[in-house]
Amino acid sequence: MSQSSDRRNALIGAAFLMATSAIGPGFLTQTATFTQTLAASFGFVILLSILLDIGAQLNIWRIIAVSEMRAQDIANKVLPGAGYFLAALIVIGGLAFNIGNVGGAGMGLNLLTGLSPETGAVISGMIAIGIFLFKEAGRAMDKFAQLMGFIMIALTIYVAWQANPPLGEAAARTFVPEKLDAIAIVTLVGGTVGGYITFAGAHRLLDAGIKGRAALPEVSQSSVRAILIASVMRVVLFLAVLGVVAQGVALNPQNPASTPFEHVAGKAGLLIFGMVIWAASITSVIGAAYTSVSFFSGLSPSIERNRNKWIIGFIVISTAVFATIGRPAQVLVLVGTLNGLILPVSLGLILIAAYKSKIVGDYKHPLWMTAAGVVVTGLMAVLSLVTIVKYVGGLTG
Fold first, then answer.
1. Are 162 and 272 in contact (CB under 8 A)?
2. In sequence order, what are the residues at sequence separation of 6 or more whose Cβ sits closer than 8 angstroms to the Cβ of residue 394?
3. C-alpha span between 318 and 40 (Å, rounded)
4. pTM value?
5. Which of 116, 141, 233, 346 is most solvent-facing, going by the fewest CB within 10 Å?
6. Domain 3-396 class, CATH top level
7. Model confidence pLDDT, tens digit, residues 86-107
């Protein structure tokens, strides 16, 4: 395979790795739930979140590429110790969410085969581990993410088409919404570029050697492509759910995202949903493990040399916790709040780094990107604070 072909595959693979890391069981549930509460007006929330996602991700990927350093190393140069704090947040959040991702994969295999969710989770964990047993694990991960991404989107497009959503109303309310929900915006932005997710593709490009100022046009294109891939899945699922909700169908409270699949195709629809949630979950397992380990592998040459073994260990721990304890709901809620906090912290540090010559040399960061990043940082910081105040109030009230 030629060098240019390898480079192109890595750029596409990084986009799909980030996108499929974002599209997990939580992504499916959130999209279905907010569609039920906001109906066609959820289109506006999706549009706004896409713009905010691009603003955040362009800044992060470009500064990582031009500095040729991982996010935690950049953060440590901005403020000594900040990188270790960021790494701790990412790893704790990644591990907790990976328990949920493994659970989603187990549910998918349960729908597809009838195996118990715990057995399905163990099998899925073994498949994810298999990716990192390859000598060319990065290339295998890229190809697997692309394949699963295409399968998810194609199957959901079929269901959306069968659900016959009110496309005219959806288009109109995307620009003139009847109702708004600030928490929905935070949840979508946090769920797409929060926590470890936005770093998945950026760190993958570093590992593939795609870095430096000359690579910035390709890196920018790949970062936007990643958001658009995730957004296509979000829009298609929104339309599928909107189609059945508009017909007066109530979503299954236990698994709201499964309702349009079952409604349009019965038992076959549940099998399709099983495949979609399995693909969404297992790619998120891989992305969370890969990215979380990338945040501490630089601490020791031994960890760096044996990174694939550490990634496998991360997946084993996530799978074992789900198989023995299940999904600790309170922990996942708490870490969900934590994930909302990670974005303003990480993006804020990246924006400061963009203007430090010891990190980026004589590179001049575009002013409009900085402005977009500041807007996202401020908005997410305020809304995350509101969420924490509500959470603390709920505990003490």
1. no
2. none
3. 37
4. 0.90
5. 116
6. mainly alpha
7. 999 899 888 888 888 998 899 9
